UniProtKB/TrEMBL annotation:
<dbReference type="InterPro" id="IPR029063">
    <property type="entry name" value="SAM-dependent_MTases_sf"/>
</dbReference>
<protein>
    <recommendedName>
        <fullName>Class I SAM-dependent methyltransferase</fullName>
    </recommendedName>
</protein>
């Protein structure tokens, strides 16, 4: 990824989204531009807000078919790790088409940012802790992170380091309440959909009271895997998610999309003993199935 990305001036074509464009241009950008924008946002925990349309269509079909067989119509759903939220919109659409009217709480570790002007022609996108997620210099998005020594060999590392230093100096001197713009980092269709609400969430942290015993179904896609968490953390996350379900007969869906685009997920149901049972699998099923079943 280059540090300074080209911006065409008028929006469309080869234009690259920065956080301001994303806030103001709404439907004027393409799916490819949206995906590139989210892929450029690296969070402070090292993950990216990657996204893709229709990524979970086959998983949606599997889950809905199984719910039809069981006569289940979950009305309160949580979608965890939603990135841009487009998959939540598509799930809501699929549920509505199947006659399942549900409200979905879509969550991610970072759902909101703040756009702050530091100098003429220079803005930054900040996370909730005030850390830079993106520099915007003369309409050009610039990443905050370094890709190792090779960045300095190309000269781009000096630009990134200089901007990080400049932001560190200017931010304490800036009254961020004046001219600060809040940015909901989700797809425009998602943020305008009445079936969806959004919240920031850390599934490793203790559950807030308003989340406990609330949901008929919870979906977690591309988050609970051995690449992100160790076994103890995975068991803790599964325990937290179980505590958010209403009890026997509620569902947990755990999925991972591999690099080749295939989904591998498992639909679990909570039994009367408060233990998960496998209802159905998509391809090889969830890689943490044994952890879920033994939690």
């Amino acid at each position: 990824m280059t540090v300074l990305m080209r911006f065409s001036g008028g929006f469309g074509g080869g234009a690259v989204l920065n956080a301001r464009n994303f806030l103001t241009e709404s439907d004027a950008f393409t799916q490819a531009q949206e995906a590139a924008f989210f892929a450029s946002i690296r969070l402070r925990n090292g993950t990216y807000k990657t996204t893709d349309h229709h990524r979970l269509d086959d998983l949606n079909r599997l889950v809905i078919d199984e719910w039809r067989k069981l006569g289940s119509k979950p009305s309160q759903i949580m979608d965890v790790g939603v990135s841009s939220g487009i998959s939540s919109v598509e799930w809501a659409d699929a549920l509505t088409c199947a006659g399942i009217e549900a409200t979905i709480l879509a969550t991610d570790l970072c759902m909101r940012g703040s756009l702050v002007r530091l100098l003429p022609g220079y803005e930054v996108l900040l996370d909730r802790d005030g850390k830079v997620l993106q520099h915007i210099v003369a309409n050009r998005p610039v990443r905050w992170y370094l890709n190792g020594p090779r960045d300095f060999l190309k000269g781009t590392g000096f630009v990134v380091a200089a901007l990080n230093t400049l932001a560190g100096v200017l931010l304490p001197l800036t009254n961020m309440r004046e001219g600060r713009k809040d940015v909901l980092l989700v797809n425009p269709h998602a943020r305008d959909d009445a079936r969806l609400t959004f919240a920031e969430d850390d599934i490793l942290a203790p559950n807030a009271a308003h989340l406990r015993g609330r949901f008929n179904a919870i979906r977690v896609s591309n988050l609970l895997n051995h690449g992100y968490f160790n076994e103890a953390q995975l068991r803790g996350a599964v325990g937290n998610l179980r505590d958010r379900l209403v009890g026997a007969g509620s569902f947990l869906i755990v999925n991972r999309t591999l690099a080749n685009g295939t989904n591998h997920g498992t639909l679990f149901r909570l039994n009367g003993a408060n233990r998960f049972e496998t209802v159905a699998k998509l391809r090889e099923g969830s890689e943490i199935e044994s952890i879920v079943l033994s939690a």
